[in-house]
Design goal:
By secondary structure, this protein is mostly beta strands. The chain has one helix and ten strands; from the N terminus they run ββββββββββα. The protein is rod-shaped, with a radius of gyration of 27 Å. It has a domain at about 55-145: Immunoglobulins (Immunoglobulin-like), CATH 2.60.40. Strands 5, 6, 8, 9 and 10 form a five-stranded antiparallel beta sheet that branches. The protein has a three-stranded antiparallel beta sheet with strand order 3-4-7, with no helix packed on it. This is Sortilin-related receptor-like. Keywords: Repeat. Pfam families: fn3 (PF00041).
Length: about 160
């Protein structure tokens, strides 16, 4: 960077979050350039992470009302991803239910079977919550154990 200035300070701008920079100052006095061997190391603070990618939803039909949610980490974490927030919302409901996890996979349980749910995920750094992933929807089904119980109750094996 060449500033050609007589200022005694300079502000570095447009630096990337969570990045280490090594800065060296050169001074010019009249027509002579003076070099220094001193290097200043600066690390920028963490930023907000990009959204998680490739959100995937699946139902485990052996368990009633459970959805497996998985995703890929953000392209740019802009720092250490401390956790993820997984949110689900029942169709037509403006409220989101949240749960936190530290891996890129989570199970959301105790959902109402045969009801459409929307899901989204966000990554969290020390700076805060990043943007949400795309929203995807799925309808959990009744678990096969519950179907068997209902069937055997219907034919009279269980009273």
């Amino acid at each position: 960077m060449d500033t050609h200035s007589n200022k005694t300070s300079y502000k570095l701008a447009v630096l990337k979050p969570d990045t280490t920079y090594h800065v060296k100052v050169l001074t010019q006095c009249l027509s002579r350039l003076h070099k220094t061997n001193e290097v200043i190391t600066v690390r920028t603070p963490e930023g907000l992470p990009d959204p998680p990618r490739h959100l995937q939803l699946s139902c485990d039909n052996s368990e009633d009302g459970t959805v497996d949610v998985s995703w890929k980490a953000p392209d740019k974490g802009h720092g250490l991803i401390r956790e993820y927030i997984v949110e689900s919302s029942e169709r037509g409901d403006l409220d989101w239910m949240s749960q936190r996890c530290t891996s890129t996979h989570s199970e959301v349980k105790e959902l109402q079977a045969d009801t459409l749910y929307s899901f989204r995920v966000a990554a969290v750094t020390s700076r805060g919550v990043g943007n949400w992933s795309e929203v995807k929807s799925i309808t959990p089904k009744k678990g096969w154990l519950l179907y068997l119980f209902e069937y055997f109750s219907f034919i009279g094996l269980f009273h």
